[in-house]
Design goal:
With about 375 residues, the chain is of the alpha/beta class. The protein has two domains: about 5-245, Type I PLP-dependent aspartate aminotransferase-like (Major domain) (Aspartate Aminotransferase, domain 2, 3-Layer(aba) Sandwich); about 250-380, Aspartate Aminotransferase, domain 1 (Alpha-Beta Complex), CATH 3.90.1150.10. The protein is built from 14 helices and twelve strands. The protein has helices at about 5-10, 55-65, 80-85, 105-115, 130-135, 155-165, 180, 215-230, 235-245, 250-270, 285-295, 310-315, 345-350, 370-380; strands at about 70-75, 95-100, 120-125, 140-145, 170-175, 190-195, 210-215, 275, 300-305, 320-325, 335, 360-365. Helix 2 runs parallel beside helix 9 (about 235-245) and helix 12 crosses helix 14. The longest helix is centred in the C-terminal third of the chain and has 20 residues, at about 250-270. The protein is globular. The relative contact order is 0.13.
């Protein structure tokens, strides 16, 4: 039977591995570093925790099923996942990347991968002509965020994947904002999906994690060899926390979306708000593409206020909404990209992408939406 996504969040598509006989509903935490060998040349299938762990394996099974892939590799953080994936490239390779990426990924590219001989061209991947024009003879990868962080640009994944295949490039998509509940990039032609599991998948702001999901056994084998070598694997307890968080992913994402749409519409009418970026708004330039390729619009929105003073006042006056540098949890958080998530991005690049002193990013939680709007109202003032 082919289960729907909300069922897969809880059970996966198949049966979990029978590694214990108690009938425990909650998958056990296998908090161990090593495993006993039955004999010389024999293994239980588990040899060392850096390579295999039953709790992590169960989590990887669920995420693989949600993303419609063939394998998932779980990492200690989202950035560890990005770092491992980029190690598939070699000096002289060229990457076309979304220009409005999360600042930590840009830092990874500039301070690690460029040093190692990888070349980058940043472009607006929502513009198909710009993507085509950016590809060079040595281009091996198109790296996409959609919607982007923080300006919520939407890339047509099927169209870009078709361009990539024509030029024999891989396509990697950061799907953190929408999660596999609302978007499945592998179904649209991508080769690899990246997640910061710290965000919506875990959903409670209490641990870190990352995933690489692929529909290529060859890529999966290379990534598993990389994590075996470098050791950035996800710990058993963190695996269990994320596994537990995913069980409620579907109901949380529906509530995040419901609240975000209501807040986006309210912000649009506020005199101190000059622009609202939420892909669920019909006037958003990427709305039609999002409606075509996504099952929903998520809980992330960005808005511009009239002055820097207003932005600072909002951050200092919000009460229910918390001024913090993360996203995707049950609690609503407000972030200041100019000095937080994108502080390491060159000023000229930030401003070219629309990030300035008046930019605020909000991760809309699952609180009562009228309470959230009231908090924004008192923080913005009149």
């Amino acid at each position: 039977m082919n289960y729907k996504a909300d069922t897969v969040c809880i059970h996966g598509q198949g049966s979990r591995e029978q590694v214990e006989s108690t009938g425990a509903i909650s998958f056990p935490i296998y908090q161990t570093a090593a495993y006993v060998h039955p004999g010389v040349g024999h293994s239980t299938g588990y040899d060392y925790n850096r390579v295999q762990n039953p709790t992590r394996k169960e989590l990887e099974r669920i995420v693989t099923d949600l993303e419609h892939g063939v394998d998932t590799i779980a990492f200690a953080t989202g950035m560890a996942a990005v770092n491992a994936f980029m190690e598939l490239l070699v000096p002289g390779n060229h990457v076309v990347a979304t220009d409005d990426l999360y600042g930590g990924v840009i830092r990874q590219f500039r301070k690690v991968n460029e040093k190692n001989g990888i070349q980058f061209t940043y472009t607006d991947t929502s513009d198909l002509q710009a993507v085509e024009a950016a590809i060079q003879e040595n281009t091996k990868l198109i790296y996409i965020e959609t919607p982007t962080n923080p300006m919520m640009k939407v890339t047509d994944l099927q169209a870009v994947s078709e361009i990539a295949k024509k030029h024999h490039c891989l396509v990697a998509v950061d799907n953190t904002f929408l999660t596999p509940y609302f978007q499945n990039p592998l179904d649209l032609g991508a080769d690899v999906v990246i997640h910061s599991a710290t965000k919506y998948l875990e959903g409670h702001n209490d641990t870190l994690g990352g995933f690489l999901v692929t529909n290529s056994p060859e890529i999966a084998d290379k990534i598993r060899e990389m994590v075996k070598t470098t050791g950035a694997c996800l710990a058993p307890f963190d695996s269990w926390l994320i596994l537990r968080g995913i069980k409620t992913l579907s109901v949380r994402m529906e509530k995040h979306q419901e609240n975000a749409l209501a807040i986006a519409k309210w912000l649009t009418g506020h005199p101190k708000v000059t622009e609202v970026f939420y892909i669920g708004l019909e006037e958003h330039p990427g709305h039609v593409t999002a409606r075509k390729q996504c099952g929903g619009y998520g809980g992330m929105l960005t808005f511009h206020v009239d002055t820097q003073e207003t932005a600072h006042r909002v951050l200092e006056r919000v009460k229910l909404i918390q001024f913090a540098e993360s996203l995707g949890g049950t609690e609503s958080l407000m972030t200041y990209p100019f000095t937080q998530t994108h502080a390491d991005v060159p000023d000229e690049t930030r401003r070219a992408n629309g990030i300035d002193e008046m930019t605020l990013r909000m991760s809309v939680g699952i609180e009562n939406v009228q309470d959230l709007i009231a908090d924004l109202e008192q923080a913005l003032g009149t």
